[in-house]
Automatic annotation (TrEMBL):
Domain Ig-like per the UniProt entry, residue ranges: 6-86
Gene Ontology molecular function, alphabetical: interleukin-11 binding; interleukin-11 receptor activity
A GO CC term assigned to this protein in UniProt: external side of plasma membrane
Keywords: Cell membrane, Disulfide bond, Glycoprotein, GPI-anchor, Immunoglobulin domain, Lipoprotein, Membrane, Receptor, Repeat, Signal
Alphabetical list of CDD domains matching this protein: FN3 (cd00063)
Name of the molecule in the record: Ciliary neurotrophic factor receptor
Organism (species): Conger conger (Conger eel)
GO-annotated biological processes: positive regulation of cell population proliferation
Length: 358
């Protein structure tokens, strides 16, 4: 019984989608600018004909002016979107259907290019600063030395394309032009750059930080070069390591050349550290973003044994008390180093020596 209600809901929803799709069959789409007055015509009806309009199956309640078969909506906005149907009076025959979509023309897109696979190629991405609310396409054109280069769409990111470098160390600049186009207008933006200026690797991968046994201030950090960097041997990377204890906000930094490991030697014993790395081509480009942060705690020192009060009392009770000094020693009579002899000679032997001396 528990699964019957969700199943019924799914069936009703599916039926509603099918009905809505059938209602839209044969409907034409009309795109209009937000804030404008929009006029819709009821098919081929003449100017003297009378018609009734509905939106999504209900009466039209928006501000409007109707003249015969014409319906004019005043200052449309996003709430004006919908499926408008008109019916000829008085027989009520449906004569037309219009899908109204309200939006705005695109503004200049924001465009950026980057090479994280140098020297294979680069990619460019783009986006609109403001939404258009209606379908908007993008035309991308890339040129180098007056020649158009082939672009390949990204399989995951819809607003990204990939371009192969036609040659390395070229003195000619690249020009990328992106045009946003929709039913209400279009806008373009272009950037120009040298190949070396867009080189930016991805962050290092598989970062591991571990304590070193019996070394209370050391942490061993290891990592891998970014897998997207295709030729680390001929185009080596250098790395920038930063680390700090969680109890502080100030980072410490170390720059490393052509190495994928480093030992931190000045960590605080027993304090948890946060560690990150960035990568950069040794000759050109800029630093990558920071890697995913890892945490590690250095080896902690063995605490000194603290003697409790009870243990201290037991030690005092089991320690034999020194023998009292002889009367001669108390009187200050020098008997061949009496004091030293009393400290190191058993009580019985001291008594024998004293009797002989008298």
């Amino acid at each position: 019984m528990a699964n019957i209600v969700p199943s019924v809901c799914c069936v009703v929803l599916a039926a509603a989608v099918v009905v809505f799709a059938k209602r839209q069959q044969g409907a034409r789409i009309q795109y209009e600018r937000m804030g404008s007055d929009v006029t819709m015509l009821c098919g081929s009806l003449g100017g003297d004909a009378s018609a009734t309009w509905k939106v999504n199956g209900t009466d039209v309640k928006a501000r409007q002016v109707q003249e015969g078969p014409r319906l004019t909506l005043l200052e449309v906005n996003l709430s004006s979107n919908g499926l408008y149907s008109c019916f000829q009076n008085p027989d009520g025959e449906r004569r037309d259907q219009i899908i109204l979509r309200v939006g705005i023309p695109p503004k200049e897109p924001s465009v950026a290019c980057r090479s994280n696979t140098y020297p294979k190629g680069f990619y460019c991405s783009w986006h609109l600063q403001d939404p258009t609310y209606i379908p908007t396409d993008f035309d991308v054109h890339v040129k180098h030395n007056q020649k158009s280069l082939e672009t390949q769409k990204d399989a995951v990111h819809k607003n990204r394309c990939h371009v192969k470098f036609p040659e390395l160390f070229s003195s000619f600049k690249y020009r990328v032009n992106v045009t946003a186009v929709n039913a209400l207008g279009k806008a373009s933006y272009a950037i120009t750059f040298d190949d070396f200026s867009i080189v930016k690797p991805d962050p290092p991968e598989k970062v591991i930080a571990s304590p070193i046994p019996d070394n209370v201030r050391r942490l061993e950090v290891k990592w891998k070069s970014p897998s997207t960097w295709p030729d680390v041997e001929n185009f080596p990377l250098k790395y920038f390591l930063r680390y700090r204890p969680l109890i502080r906000d100030q980072w410490q930094h170390v720059e490393l050349s052509d190495s994928t490991h480093h030992t931190i030697t000045d960590a605080f014993a027993g304090k948890e550290y946060i560690i990150q790395l960035a990568a950069k081509d040794t000759e050109i480009g800029t630093w990558s973003e920071w890697s995913v942060a890892v945490h590690a705690t250095p080896w902690m020192e063995e605490p000194e044994k603290v003697i409790s009060t009870t243990e201290a009392e037991a030690i005092v009770e089991t320690t034999p008390s020194p023998a009292p000094p002889s009367p001669k020693c108390r009187l200050g009579i020098a008997v061949g180093g009496c004091s030293a002899l009393l400290r190191s000679t058993p009580l019985l032997l001291v008594s024998v020596l004293l009797s002989l001396m008298w």
